[in-house]
């Protein structure tokens, strides 16, 4: 399971001209699910994301998590994060979880995130999403749970 986190000043997801999720400052999370991933791994990852300190505190250091920074969380499913890219010139999506399983797990993780944090927005699983963001810093981290 992989998550690409971007600290943003604002972010939104648009599907068919409609905004499906939008936050002001906070974390935009692109979430990739692999064949061996499960809800327990996902809970650990969501908990880590919510506790991860990469917002500036009073001293200007990365000391605050998203809650302390009064930010939002925008979760976007992105199977391409699971691609193997070491060989050749074309990504291999074999490690990604099959779509029907991934959708169910993604929805469970969204529900879990919403039970743990007040401001959670989302994209739409497997939709053609247009993601708009203003990266803050830029600050981007890749988190993995195995």
Shape: globular
- Spatial separation of the terminal alpha carbons: 6 Å
SS-derived structural category: alpha/beta
Helix tally equals 2
Number of domains: 1
Question: What is the CATH architecture assignment?
Answer: 3-Layer(bba) Sandwich
* Helix-strand sequence: EEEHEEEHEE
Catalytic activity: a D-aminoacyl-tRNA + H2O = a tRNA + a D-alpha-amino acid + H(+); glycyl-tRNA(Ala) + H2O = tRNA(Ala) + glycine + H(+)
Subunit structure: Homodimer.
Motif (Gly-cisPro motif, important for rejection of L-amino acids): 137-138
Keywords: Cytoplasm, Hydrolase, RNA-binding, tRNA-binding
3D structure, described in words:
The protein is of the alpha/beta class. It has one domain: D-tyrosyl-trna(Tyr) Deacylase, Chain: A (3-Layer(bba) Sandwich), CATH 3.50.80.10. The protein has two helices and eight strands; from the N terminus they run βββαβββαββ. The chain has helices spanning 39-51, 99-116, and strands at residues 2-15, 18-23, 26-32, 55-56, 62-64, 72-77, 120-122, 130-144. The strands form two sheets. Strands 1, 2, 3, 6, 7 and 8 form a six-stranded mixed β-sheet that branches. The chain has a two-stranded antiparallel sheet with strand order 4-5. β6 (72-77), α2 and β7 form a beta-alpha-beta unit. α1 crosses α2. The longest helix is centred in the last third of the chain and has 18 residues, at 99-116. The radius of gyration is 15 Å and the shape is globular. The N and C termini lie close together (6 Å). 32% of the residues are buried.
């Amino acid at each position: 399971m992989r998550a690409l986190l971007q600290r943003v000043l604002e972010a939104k997801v648009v599907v068919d001209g409609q905004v499906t999720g939008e936050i002001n400052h906070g974390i935009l999370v692109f979430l990739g699910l692999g064949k061996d991933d499960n809800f327990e791994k996902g809970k650990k990852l969501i908990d880590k994301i919510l506790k991860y300190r990469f917002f500036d505190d009073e001293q200007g250091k990365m000391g605050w998590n998203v809650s302390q920074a009064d930010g939002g969380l925008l979760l976007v499913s992105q199977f391409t994060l699971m691609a193997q890219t070491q060989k050749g010139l074309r990504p291999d999506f074999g490690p990604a979880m099959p779509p029907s399983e991934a959708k169910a797990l993604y929805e469970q993780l969204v529900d879990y995130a919403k039970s743990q944090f007040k401001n959670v927005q989302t994209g739409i699983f497997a939709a053609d999403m247009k993601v708009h963001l203003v990266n803050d810093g830029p600050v981007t981290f890749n988190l993995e749970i195995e």
